[in-house]
Structure formats: C-alpha cells, structure tokens
C-alpha cells in the first residue's frame, strides 16, 4: 500500500462517511466566517508600510521628536490670477491653516504656514534687529497689512518654500502621528483623507485652487476606489460564471465551482478578522488570487467528475473516484502554495507580512472548500437527462480531439527541441531586460494612481510652483553636544550641504550653517560679504542663538543637526544617486560628523527600496526552494521536479522583464505579485505532470500519455488560464494604476503559466523523463 493509499484510507471515511454532518459543520463555519468577514475593516497604516527595522527608519524614529517623520501632508493654495496679498486669499489661507491644525491625528506642534508663529522674519534696522511673525497676530485684511506681509515674506527668505516662486500661492505643512493623540487609537487615514477633501471642497473657488498631497491622501484616494474594486471583483465573478457554464454545459456544475470559490474567499476574510487583521488597500490582489486558485482546483475536480459520469458512473462513485485521483495532488499543490506564500513573511515590512498571512489563510480555506465541500456536493448532483449530457460531452471531446492530437506532437523530439530553444531565447531576453527593472518608483507622482489622477495633478502643481517640491530627504548630522558652535563641525556640514545641492536630482538644500551665515551677515549690517561662518566661537554662538529648535534644523543640545535635501522627484534612480552621494561623503570626507540616513518621505522610500532590492531575489528563491521540496516529496523524481519548476521559473523571469518593459517598478505593492502568482503555476504543473506520469505508468508512449493528459486535465488548465486571464483583464480599466499594473502581471502569469504547463513541460519531459522506467513498471 502506497503512502497515498494510506492517506486516502483515513480521509475517505471522514469526507464520504458522514456527508450530512460534514455539510452542516461546513455550513456553520461558513456562517460564522461570513459574520466575521462582514466586520473586516480597511486597515491602512504608515508604520506598517515601511521597514521599521531598517537603519534609516531607526534614525527616523530616534529623531522623530526633534525633526519630524516622513508622514507629512502638504496643502497648497494657488491663485489663478494675481498674487497672494489680498483679503480673499489670505483669509482662505488662515482658515485652511486652522482646519488643518484641528484635523484628527495631526501633530499640532508641526503645523506650519504663513499664519503660524514659527514662520518669522528678521531684519537689520538702525540700532540693531527687528523681527516678528511674517503675518502679525493682529492681522486685518487692509491694504496696509497686505503690503506689510509682502515685505515680511521677502525679508523671511521663504519664497519657494512657504510661498510659490511667483508669489501666487502659499503652503500649509503638517505632520501626522500614527496614533490619534486625542483618542489614543490608531489613526484612521480614511477619515483624515475625507476631512482633507472637505477642506478642499469648502475653500476652493474659481480663483483659488487647493492641491493636497501626502500618505493620508493617497490612502484616501485608493480607498475611495474600493467600490470600483468591488465592481471589478463582481465582474470577474460574472465572467467566470458564464465561462464555467459554457465549459461544463451545466449550470449546476458551474455553481459548484463558483460557490466553493466564494466560500473560500469568505473564509479568508473571516480568518483574517479572527486573527485581528484588516484588509490593507494595497492587498486587494489577495482575494482575487484566492478566487483564482480555487477556481483552478474546482475546474479540475468538476472536469474529472464529468469524465467519470461520461463513463457511466453514478454521482457518488464519480465523486469518490475523482477524489482518489485528485485529492492528494491538489492538496499537495495547495500546501505548497501555503508554504510558498509563508516565505514572503520574511520580508521585514508589516504590510507584506499581512499579505503573506492573508494568502496563506486563503489557501487553507481552499483545501477545505475544494477538497471536502466540493466532493460532498457533487455526490448530490443529479443530471436530469444524463444520456443527453453524455452525448453533449462526447461531442465536445470529439470537437477538441484534433487540437489535443496536434498539441501532443510537442512531445516529439524536433518540436520539443524547437520549444526548448525558444524558451532559452526568452530566458536570455528576460535576463537582459532584468537589468532595466527599477526598484522603487519609476515615474513622477504616485505610481499607485493614474498619471492624470487628481492627486498626481496636485503633486505636479506643487512641484512646478515651489522650489522645495513634495519630496524631502533629511540627513541627520550627528556630533558631540554643543557642536553647532564648533567651527570645524559647522564648516563640514556646510561643505556637505553644498556637495548635496550640486548633486543631480537635488533642487535645493537647507542646513543650520546656511542659516547661520545669513544671521551673521545681519549682525554686520546685512553686508553680503559677512554671510560666512566665523571661526571665532563667540561669534558662532551669536549667529546660532536666534535660530530656534522649531526650525527643524537642530535639537536642543546641538548634538544633531538636520540637513534638508529637496529632491526633484522620487524616482528610484534619483533616490539611489542621492543616497550614494551621502554615503560616499560620509566615508571619504566626514571627519567630525556622522551623516545618518534618513528621515523625510524620501528617506522612507530609500529604506523601502533597499529592503525590496535586498529581499527580492532571496524571497523568490525561498518560494522556489519550498516548491522544490514539495515537488520532490510529491514525485520523488528529479525529472518530475524539473518538469514542474523550470516552466515556473521561466515565467517568473519573464514577469520581471514585462515589468521592466512596462515601467512597473518593483516595490511594496508589486513585490508579492510574482511570488504569489507562482501558486497558480504550481497547480497547473502538478495536475498535468501527475496525470502524465499516471499515463506513462500504464505503458503508454509519451505522446499518447500526454494526449490522454490533455483530455483529462489539460483542457481544464487551458480553460482556467483563459478564463482567469480574461476576467482579470478587466482590471486594466481601473482608475487605480497599481490595480491596472497588477492586472497586466496577473494576465501574463495566468496565461504564461498555462502555456508553460501545456507546451514547455511536455517538451522537457521528452528529454528528462525516462520512459523505459515507466514502461518497465507497467510490464510488472
């Protein structure tokens, strides 16, 4: 008795011996998980989207209280005509500042605009200095006040930062806390985004446009598209249902597949809620992946059941025979999926770890719904006109017979060799294109949204009108306490600032020495030639004293000073170039200071990109290692392992090439796609190869065995690839760019894995599988 027989001997009585009890238990569990699934919340978070264990993020957390973090919100008001010095605009700016100040989750100590007291000016006057808030506390909308504000803006040197370069607009800055300081609860980013949108609706006029950017707004825009995501999910369900009906020629059988798949998705959401997780907006791939894998297994099972019924078996016997043939290979494929998905948990970013857990829950649910629920349900299925049904199935078999005969010829030496040569060329091309794959964003704006989305138009407006743009990298200059009054330290930081300002991709820099030089000039009657760093320590003290810690340039004991680097964009190549220049300066030129990377939103992106780059091949390697182990346990044959895994690896390599060609960057939202979508290819491979080996074991030639395999499981694989690829292609119409990108990748991987199983695997079998071994076993 084989291991498979021993397992089936234990499992069969459980599944088929107490069918009614099993159905009632499954129904109760489905109701429970459905209730839990109804409580699933959208769970977005800034901290869980970043690699908190990365050195850059440790720096961010260490200095967050002094220099802020990377979770910023920018609200820019820009006039269509005229400058900002009028009652309408300044009134709107004041109201927007107040509204932002009282938003839930806002760090009120870090709200800044022309109307906040941290934005000040200093000027040299007869007898000393004069200074104050850029907009006085006694502000009133008069011409005299407008002229005063205009003068103060010029004196403060904030044009390009707080005021647009042409003085037609102004900015409100704010930082968000991960925990709402009032309620103590986790910040609801959807609520913040909703409030920001209300601010826009309330204060935007024909003459004043309001542009809003920040992580919270991205989450809000993605979440707002949730209804669209549900629509595409429903559309995919409808398309799959229709195609299943056409394929099975039976509404009942199509519903078995579809309902079991939906139950698996319900269980997935229920398990997710029971485990204390929500659904992140960037994890919308997972439910559809669960639906797809479940559909794939369901089609195989129903297809085999129909084959048994065609032979004259009753529904119960047909289900039992199908269970004996497919339960072990199918469960092995799903366990392989679970283990493979679990490996992406190794990536130290919480959102990806949640995706890993989510996918594993889904695969575990499919094991129950497709290997227990579907077999039991099929024992109760009755075909009304069984003879007509069998005749219809027979006609369908004959209709496809010519295609199966043609495809079976690929096992012949010449077609097999041609196929493998083409695969080798494709592999070479994919490896060549892999060098073009960007780690991180490959375009301006936020790649999760369409280039013409409101958010990306807002981002472009801010970048076009302000010198600072929307992207900032903060490098923390670490030194002993009181270092800001040490000339050697300040001079080195000044050189570093100049060095970075002259780096390609940097708009401008701001640092403590730069501001201190301006202050020193003011102490010398505003003479430009005195805008230098003085070696005399007492003069340095004089220049530093007027600069408050609220400027974000120094901490209270001067042991850390921030260098603000405003970048032109946040493309991966831009970030990498700037970060490398920082590291190079720190290694080669730093003597008195350690330049610690990094805070600011670009610092977060730099850390994420580095983690993704470091983990990408490692994680995919772990996924394939798990697959190799399970394939070996399944087939106990190196040839079998290679026949399944080599087509999978080719498709994965080609998927990276497709990403490079289409400009899809490898980042948190896309990294799991290639690893997760491997699961569908494993299913294809195991079903095809196990049936092929079964045919060879009966003494058939490779061509005849593969012809029989195409009849039994190959047609189901082809249908699944076409059906899933067709249904997910609707994602290309989504308003969410990242959903459209994932749609492209999934369409490719569903169809490419299908071709891999149908064309590449038999070609490999021609040269790898020892046919005489199977023939010898058959003769015994």
From TrEMBL:
Q: Where in the cell is it found?
A: Cell membrane
Annotated membrane topology is:
Multi-pass membrane protein
Q: A Pfam family this protein belongs to?
A: MMPL
Transmembrane residues, as ranges?
16-35, 225-247, 253-275, 282-306, 326-347, 359-380, 414-432, 622-648, 654-682, 716-733, 745-769
Record GO terms (molecular function):
transmembrane transporter activity
Q: Which InterPro entries match?
A: Acrflvin-R (IPR001036), MMPL_dom (IPR004869), Mycobact_MmpL (IPR050545), SSD (IPR000731)
GO CC aspect terms = plasma membrane
Coiled-coil residues are none
Q: Which UniProt keywords apply?
A: Cell membrane, Membrane, Transmembrane, Transmembrane helix
Alphabetized Gene3D superfamilies for the sequence: Multidrug efflux transporter AcrB transmembrane domain (1.20.1640.10)
Q: Which residues form the SSD domain?
A: 221-380
What name does this protein carry? SSD domain-containing protein
Recorded source organism is Oceanococcus atlanticus
The record lists the lineage as: Bacteria, Pseudomonadati, Pseudomonadota, Gammaproteobacteria, Chromatiales
